[in-house]
Amino acid sequence: MPYGASFAAVYDALMAEDFDYTAWAAYYTDLLASAGVHPGYLVECGCGTASLGIEWARRGIRVLGVDQSPDMLAIAAQRARQAGVPLALARQDIAQLCLGRRADAIVATCDTVNYLASPRAARAFFQRAHAGLKAGGALALDVSSRYKLEEEMGDAPFFAVRDDLAYLWQNHWDRAAHTLDMELTFFVREADGRYRRFDERHRQRAHSVPELTAWLEEAGFVSVRAFGGMTFAPPSATDARIHFLAIKQ
């Protein structure tokens, strides 16, 4: 389900602790180039507040950001205006992705494919992404690995307390379905000093490397390769994040 307005408002503050978007944009640009893809037109699926899309737009790439959350897209539009870069945005469920023109590259990062929390939804996205690419184009994506979601997150609770924000995070791991249900309670400091509470419920699925490879090939992709987190080496059994690159003939 789409992120709510309250979560969209704190999303960038949370992600800034773990993600260097300039480095991520550079990695994905290099990953695509390794397959001979130098995109003039790139579609970012699950673009969120467009931190990556803005980085690519600064490199002269024409970017379409696609997300299911209208609140995320509103922040993305504002941030693009502030950055002074052109950025097209569209609200879509990426499992039903429909592009007006075919792209040189489609990218889905930061657990976007994990949020397609069933094999059916992930397979549908791969089929729509294949249809939306030019011949010779590429789909690049990353997922939180099964090792990370099961072993590192599992049923563990997390919490953080900052001056402007606090959150409580409880996980529930379903071993049979390979799904992680996350219950998050946030307390956000308002201008008057009081804290406002809101709750979020998220679900991710830990798709395995063999599953993702098979589904990408089923959708028509070739030369499907997996890499350990932000490297060009094969993933290890304990990599927390795994990247994929798949080519449309």
UniProtKB/TrEMBL annotation:
Coiled coil: none annotated. GO terms for biological process: methylation. It comes from the Bacteria. Residues 43-137 form the Methyltransferase domain. One of its GO terms (molecular function) is methyltransferase activity. Keywords: Methyltransferase, Transferase. CDD domains: AdoMet_MTases (cd02440). InterPro entries: Methyltransf_25 (IPR041698), SAM-dependent_MTases_sf (IPR029063). This is Class I SAM-dependent methyltransferase. It comes from Candidatus Alectryocaccomicrobium excrementavium.
